[in-house]
Structure to design on (282 residues):
Protein backbone atom coordinates (compact mmCIF):
# COMPACT_ATOMS: atom_id res chain seq x y z
CA UNK A 1 0.00 0.00 0.00
CA UNK A 2 2.94 2.35 0.51
CA UNK A 3 5.19 1.41 -2.41
CA UNK A 4 6.76 3.86 -4.82
CA UNK A 5 7.41 3.73 -8.54
CA UNK A 6 5.61 4.52 -11.76
CA UNK A 7 2.32 2.85 -12.55
CA UNK A 8 -0.79 3.50 -14.58
CA UNK A 9 -3.48 5.74 -13.07
CA UNK A 10 -6.41 4.01 -11.41
CA UNK A 11 -8.92 2.67 -13.94
CA UNK A 12 -12.15 0.68 -13.79
CA UNK A 13 -13.72 -0.83 -16.89
CA UNK A 14 -17.46 -1.55 -16.78
CA UNK A 15 -17.50 -3.07 -13.30
CA UNK A 16 -14.17 -4.78 -13.94
CA UNK A 17 -11.18 -4.94 -11.57
CA UNK A 18 -9.56 -1.74 -10.30
CA UNK A 19 -5.92 -1.54 -11.41
CA UNK A 20 -3.08 0.94 -11.06
CA UNK A 21 -2.36 3.76 -8.62
CA UNK A 22 -4.92 5.79 -6.71
CA UNK A 23 -3.94 9.47 -6.51
CA UNK A 24 -4.66 10.29 -2.86
CA UNK A 25 -4.57 13.92 -1.59
CA UNK A 26 -2.25 15.05 1.20
CA UNK A 27 -3.09 14.51 4.85
CA UNK A 28 -5.06 17.46 6.23
CA UNK A 29 -3.89 17.10 9.84
CA UNK A 30 -0.22 17.09 8.82
CA UNK A 31 -0.79 19.99 6.41
CA UNK A 32 -2.17 22.26 9.18
CA UNK A 33 0.72 21.40 11.47
CA UNK A 34 3.39 21.84 8.79
CA UNK A 35 2.25 25.42 8.14
CA UNK A 36 2.04 26.27 11.85
CA UNK A 37 5.40 24.78 12.81
CA UNK A 38 7.01 26.35 9.75
CA UNK A 39 5.69 29.71 10.95
CA UNK A 40 7.26 29.08 14.38
CA UNK A 41 10.65 28.03 13.02
CA UNK A 42 13.46 30.50 12.30
CA UNK A 43 14.20 30.39 8.58
CA UNK A 44 12.66 28.78 5.51
CA UNK A 45 10.48 25.66 5.66
CA UNK A 46 9.52 24.06 2.34
CA UNK A 47 6.42 21.87 2.19
CA UNK A 48 5.51 19.50 -0.63
CA UNK A 49 2.28 17.52 -0.92
CA UNK A 50 0.29 20.07 1.10
CA UNK A 51 -3.45 19.49 0.94
CA UNK A 52 -4.72 22.63 -0.79
CA UNK A 53 -8.21 22.44 0.66
CA UNK A 54 -10.07 25.48 1.93
CA UNK A 55 -9.43 24.48 5.56
CA UNK A 56 -5.66 24.35 5.05
CA UNK A 57 -5.58 27.55 2.97
CA UNK A 58 -7.32 29.30 5.89
CA UNK A 59 -4.52 28.19 8.21
CA UNK A 60 -1.94 29.50 5.71
CA UNK A 61 -3.76 32.85 5.73
CA UNK A 62 -3.77 32.86 9.55
CA UNK A 63 0.00 32.35 9.64
CA UNK A 64 0.40 35.32 7.29
CA UNK A 65 -1.82 37.39 9.56
CA UNK A 66 0.47 36.59 12.50
CA UNK A 67 3.55 37.73 10.55
CA UNK A 68 4.95 34.67 8.79
CA UNK A 69 5.60 34.72 5.04
CA UNK A 70 3.67 31.90 3.34
CA UNK A 71 3.79 31.53 -0.43
CA UNK A 72 3.13 28.84 -3.03
CA UNK A 73 6.09 28.26 -5.36
CA UNK A 74 4.94 25.84 -8.04
CA UNK A 75 4.07 22.62 -6.24
CA UNK A 76 5.91 23.66 -3.07
CA UNK A 77 4.73 25.88 -0.22
CA UNK A 78 7.44 28.06 1.31
CA UNK A 79 7.12 29.39 4.86
CA UNK A 80 9.51 31.95 6.37
CA UNK A 81 8.90 31.66 10.09
CA UNK A 82 9.07 34.26 12.83
CA UNK A 83 10.26 31.98 15.64
CA UNK A 84 8.58 30.81 18.82
CA UNK A 85 7.02 33.84 20.51
CA UNK A 86 7.47 35.95 17.39
CA UNK A 87 3.84 36.33 16.34
CA UNK A 88 2.66 39.89 15.70
CA UNK A 89 -0.87 41.05 16.38
CA UNK A 90 -3.18 40.51 13.37
CA UNK A 91 -4.70 43.60 11.79
CA UNK A 92 -7.99 41.90 10.96
CA UNK A 93 -10.29 39.08 12.09
CA UNK A 94 -8.98 35.54 11.53
CA UNK A 95 -11.68 33.73 9.52
CA UNK A 96 -11.12 29.98 9.79
CA UNK A 97 -14.05 29.00 7.57
CA UNK A 98 -15.05 25.47 8.51
CA UNK A 99 -11.64 24.46 9.89
CA UNK A 100 -12.20 23.15 13.41
CA UNK A 101 -8.67 21.74 13.57
CA UNK A 102 -7.20 24.94 12.19
CA UNK A 103 -8.88 27.32 14.61
CA UNK A 104 -8.08 25.23 17.70
CA UNK A 105 -4.43 24.74 16.75
CA UNK A 106 -3.95 28.40 15.84
CA UNK A 107 -5.53 29.54 19.11
CA UNK A 108 -3.19 27.25 20.99
CA UNK A 109 -0.18 28.55 19.07
CA UNK A 110 -0.89 32.22 19.90
CA UNK A 111 -2.16 31.73 23.47
CA UNK A 112 1.25 32.25 25.10
CA UNK A 113 2.26 35.28 23.04
CA UNK A 114 1.06 38.70 24.33
CA UNK A 115 -1.08 39.61 21.33
CA UNK A 116 -4.84 39.65 20.78
CA UNK A 117 -6.69 38.05 17.89
CA UNK A 118 -10.35 37.70 17.00
CA UNK A 119 -11.47 34.40 15.45
CA UNK A 120 -14.59 33.57 13.49
CA UNK A 121 -15.75 30.95 11.01
CA UNK A 122 -18.65 29.88 8.86
CA UNK A 123 -22.12 29.14 10.25
CA UNK A 124 -21.17 25.56 11.10
CA UNK A 125 -17.95 26.44 12.93
CA UNK A 126 -19.71 29.22 14.85
CA UNK A 127 -21.98 26.55 16.37
CA UNK A 128 -19.06 24.47 17.66
CA UNK A 129 -18.04 25.33 21.22
CA UNK A 130 -14.37 26.14 21.82
CA UNK A 131 -14.49 25.70 25.59
CA UNK A 132 -12.59 22.42 25.65
CA UNK A 133 -9.59 24.26 24.14
CA UNK A 134 -10.07 27.60 25.91
CA UNK A 135 -10.15 25.99 29.37
CA UNK A 136 -6.57 24.63 29.26
CA UNK A 137 -5.31 27.74 27.44
CA UNK A 138 -6.59 29.82 30.36
CA UNK A 139 -4.20 27.90 32.61
CA UNK A 140 -1.31 29.40 30.66
CA UNK A 141 -2.73 32.88 31.30
CA UNK A 142 -4.67 33.44 28.06
CA UNK A 143 -8.05 35.20 28.25
CA UNK A 144 -11.02 34.69 25.92
CA UNK A 145 -13.93 37.09 25.46
CA UNK A 146 -16.85 36.20 23.24
CA UNK A 147 -20.24 34.60 22.96
CA UNK A 148 -21.77 32.56 25.75
CA UNK A 149 -20.61 28.93 25.74
CA UNK A 150 -17.26 29.67 24.11
CA UNK A 151 -18.76 30.09 20.65
CA UNK A 152 -17.14 31.98 17.79
CA UNK A 153 -16.63 34.79 17.11
CA UNK A 154 -14.36 35.37 20.07
CA UNK A 155 -11.25 37.31 20.92
CA UNK A 156 -8.30 35.56 22.52
CA UNK A 157 -5.71 37.61 24.39
CA UNK A 158 -2.41 35.81 24.78
CA UNK A 159 -0.69 35.54 28.13
CA UNK A 160 1.57 38.45 29.13
CA UNK A 161 3.71 36.10 31.17
CA UNK A 162 2.96 32.53 30.22
CA UNK A 163 3.08 29.77 32.80
CA UNK A 164 3.84 26.13 32.01
CA UNK A 165 0.99 23.77 32.85
CA UNK A 166 0.25 20.16 33.61
CA UNK A 167 -3.01 19.14 31.96
CA UNK A 168 -4.86 15.84 31.92
CA UNK A 169 -7.24 15.54 28.99
CA UNK A 170 -10.76 14.91 30.31
CA UNK A 171 -11.67 13.14 27.05
CA UNK A 172 -9.40 11.91 24.26
CA UNK A 173 -8.77 14.72 21.76
CA UNK A 174 -5.81 15.19 19.44
CA UNK A 175 -6.94 18.77 18.80
CA UNK A 176 -6.92 19.76 22.46
CA UNK A 177 -3.66 17.93 23.13
CA UNK A 178 -2.06 19.69 20.17
CA UNK A 179 -3.36 23.11 21.21
CA UNK A 180 -1.86 22.68 24.69
CA UNK A 181 1.49 21.50 23.33
CA UNK A 182 1.66 24.37 20.84
CA UNK A 183 0.86 26.81 23.66
CA UNK A 184 3.58 25.18 25.74
CA UNK A 185 6.20 26.07 23.15
CA UNK A 186 6.33 29.68 24.37
CA UNK A 187 5.97 28.94 28.08
CA UNK A 188 9.16 28.64 30.15
CA UNK A 189 9.88 25.34 31.84
CA UNK A 190 8.08 22.09 31.17
CA UNK A 191 4.50 21.67 29.95
CA UNK A 192 3.00 18.25 30.62
CA UNK A 193 0.00 16.70 28.89
CA UNK A 194 -1.48 13.42 30.12
CA UNK A 195 -3.91 11.40 28.02
CA UNK A 196 -5.63 8.28 29.30
CA UNK A 197 -6.12 7.00 25.77
CA UNK A 198 -3.62 7.57 22.97
CA UNK A 199 -4.81 9.91 20.18
CA UNK A 200 -3.13 10.64 16.86
CA UNK A 201 0.37 11.89 17.59
CA UNK A 202 1.25 13.95 14.52
CA UNK A 203 2.00 16.98 16.70
CA UNK A 204 4.46 15.17 18.95
CA UNK A 205 6.31 13.63 16.00
CA UNK A 206 6.45 16.90 14.07
CA UNK A 207 7.54 18.94 17.10
CA UNK A 208 10.47 16.56 17.55
CA UNK A 209 11.24 16.81 13.83
CA UNK A 210 11.39 20.62 14.06
CA UNK A 211 13.84 20.40 16.97
CA UNK A 212 11.65 20.68 20.08
CA UNK A 213 12.63 18.75 23.18
CA UNK A 214 9.74 16.37 23.84
CA UNK A 215 9.60 13.14 25.83
CA UNK A 216 6.81 10.57 25.97
CA UNK A 217 6.36 7.83 28.53
CA UNK A 218 3.71 5.34 29.50
CA UNK A 219 2.79 5.71 33.17
CA UNK A 220 0.09 4.51 35.54
CA UNK A 221 -2.00 7.62 34.83
CA UNK A 222 -1.69 7.18 31.07
CA UNK A 223 0.49 8.53 28.28
CA UNK A 224 2.60 11.39 29.63
CA UNK A 225 4.00 13.96 27.19
CA UNK A 226 6.64 16.41 28.45
CA UNK A 227 7.59 19.44 26.36
CA UNK A 228 10.42 21.83 27.20
CA UNK A 229 9.35 25.37 26.37
CA UNK A 230 11.01 28.18 24.42
CA UNK A 231 13.06 26.14 21.94
CA UNK A 232 14.41 27.54 18.69
CA UNK A 233 12.64 25.45 16.10
CA UNK A 234 14.66 24.48 13.04
CA UNK A 235 13.10 24.89 9.57
CA UNK A 236 12.48 21.68 7.68
CA UNK A 237 11.78 20.13 4.31
CA UNK A 238 8.34 18.58 4.91
CA UNK A 239 6.84 16.02 2.56
CA UNK A 240 3.20 15.71 3.60
CA UNK A 241 2.09 12.07 3.40
CA UNK A 242 -1.16 11.17 1.67
CA UNK A 243 -4.33 10.93 3.70
CA UNK A 244 -5.25 7.44 4.97
CA UNK A 245 -8.93 8.36 5.38
CA UNK A 246 -9.13 9.40 1.72
CA UNK A 247 -7.27 6.23 0.72
CA UNK A 248 -9.91 4.11 2.47
CA UNK A 249 -12.44 4.69 -0.31
CA UNK A 250 -10.51 3.28 -3.30
CA UNK A 251 -9.05 0.54 -1.08
CA UNK A 252 -12.54 -0.55 -0.01
CA UNK A 253 -13.72 -0.45 -3.63
CA UNK A 254 -10.79 -2.62 -4.73
CA UNK A 255 -11.51 -5.13 -1.97
CA UNK A 256 -15.05 -5.54 -3.27
CA UNK A 257 -14.03 -6.15 -6.89
CA UNK A 258 -12.30 -9.51 -7.50
CA UNK A 259 -9.04 -9.33 -9.43
CA UNK A 260 -8.27 -5.73 -8.46
CA UNK A 261 -4.64 -4.71 -8.01
CA UNK A 262 -4.36 -1.27 -6.49
CA UNK A 263 -1.53 0.78 -5.05
CA UNK A 264 -1.96 3.77 -2.76
CA UNK A 265 1.63 5.08 -2.46
CA UNK A 266 2.97 7.43 0.21
CA UNK A 267 -0.06 7.10 2.48
CA UNK A 268 0.61 8.01 6.12
CA UNK A 269 1.12 4.83 8.12
CA UNK A 270 1.43 6.45 11.54
CA UNK A 271 0.24 3.73 13.97
CA UNK A 272 -2.27 6.18 15.47
CA UNK A 273 -3.90 6.62 12.03
CA UNK A 274 -3.41 3.26 10.29
CA UNK A 275 -6.04 1.21 12.12
CA UNK A 276 -8.03 0.47 8.96
CA UNK A 277 -5.04 -1.02 7.16
CA UNK A 278 -3.95 -3.01 10.23
CA UNK A 279 -7.45 -4.47 10.42
CA UNK A 280 -7.54 -5.32 6.70
CA UNK A 281 -4.19 -7.13 6.97
CA UNK A 282 -5.50 -9.08 9.95
Amino acid sequence: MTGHGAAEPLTAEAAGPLRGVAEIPGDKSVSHRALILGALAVGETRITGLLESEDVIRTAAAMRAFGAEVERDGGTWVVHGVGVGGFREPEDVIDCGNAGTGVRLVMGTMATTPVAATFTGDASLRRRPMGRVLDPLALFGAQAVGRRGGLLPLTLVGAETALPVQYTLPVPSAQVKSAVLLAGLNAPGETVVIENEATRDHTERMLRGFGAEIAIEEAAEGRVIRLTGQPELVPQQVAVPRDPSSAAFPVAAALMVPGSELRVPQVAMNPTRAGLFDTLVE
User: Anything to note?
Assistant: Residues 28-40 form the longest helix (13 residues). The longest strand covers residues 42-48.
